[in-house]
Structure formats: structure tokens, C-alpha cells
Hints:
Blueprint: H1 4-20, E1 74-86, E2 89-96, E3 102-105, E4 108-110, H2 117-129, E5 131-147, E6 152-167, E7 179-186, H3 197-211
Parallel strand pairs: 1-6
Antiparallel strand pairs: 1-2, 1-4, 2-3, 2-7, 5-6
Amino acid sequence: xxxxxxxxxxxxxxxxxHARRGGSRDVLxxxxxxxxxxxxxxxxxxxxxxxxxxxxxxxxxxxFASLDAQELPVVREYSAxxxxxxxxxxxxxxxxxxxxxxxxxxxxxHIEQGETPQQTAVREVHExxxxxxxxxxxxxxxxYWFTGSSQRVHKLVHHFAxxxxxxxxxxxxxxxxxxxxxxxxxFDDLDGVLSYPNERRIAWLYSRKRDS
Length: 212
């Protein structure tokens, strides 16, 4: 059994080892960025794989989230959409979230049987914004989970960059009537307008890809 004095001695030893290593602090980094090209020392110019911080010791009672969700059936959903460009502006839509809030997001929707993700992106963008586009680049795929009342959903959303080749801005063609409004936004302003962090990340990734 570990006594309070044992614990104090363990913490003191850990602090002493940390000081001998120079007292460097753990840094939380992200895995999504690669090393910069031509770095001779291999140092990253952007986030690299995470370094886990030291485990915090606590005597508080440990609790866990409900495990009931693990018993729910898993359903996989696949969607596609993305950034539809007209010059330096991008069409986005307003739709209600599951909680009822109006949020600004990128046009996207479920991949239908027999469609490729690229075909879905063109169709969904046209339905939700009225703009007909053609895919010019692949950006990234968002992969996430959420839990409903009767199932756990594993969702993958493929994002593409599209160029406008026709159409006019309207939500009248949305068969599901999910899009409340569609507007043009300058690409550089998307970070301040899009509601979802993952979609702001998509815009950021494409800005880096376009500028590289």
C-alpha cells in the first residue's frame, strides 16, 4: 500500500529527474502537419505527433461516462461536399443543428448508391446552393463519431474544392429543405463565419495547399 510519505518521495524523485533533464516542459502538438521540406535538422515547422503530458495524481474518486452507448449498434455514414469557389468567394449555407441552432456550414450530403464522393459533392453543392460546380481538387476527409438515441454513428465526410461553372445562388433546389439560406463569403473570411471547427480546419488546410 502506498502511504502519503511514499507518494511524497515519488513526486520528489520525479521532480529531481525532471530538473536534471533541464526542466523542459511537455508540449501538446497535433499530428496533422508534416515536416517542412528541406529542413536539414528534421525540426517541424508546424505541429507534430502529440507528447502526452505527465499524468496528474489525484485522490478524487474516478468516474466514467455512461457505457450504455457501447451497447448500441454502430452505423456508418458517408457524405461529401466542400468549398465551391466563384473567384475568391465561397458559397456556404445556413441550416439548423440537431439542437435547433442556426449554423453556417459547407454544403454536403449523403453519398447515394452508385455515386462516387466527387459526384456526390457536385450534386449536393448544386442542391443546397443552386451553384453547379466541377471538382478541381481533393482537400481532406473528416472522420468522427456521434451517438443518437438508438445507435452510434461513425461518419466520414469527404471534402473537395469545386469551381463554379453555372447556376445561381438559391436553396430552392434542396430536396430535404435543410438549407435555410445560402450566401457568398470571401474565402479569407470563412474562419470567422463557419460554425464548425472541423470545417474551419478544412478551409485552413486548403489555404495552405493552394499557397504551397
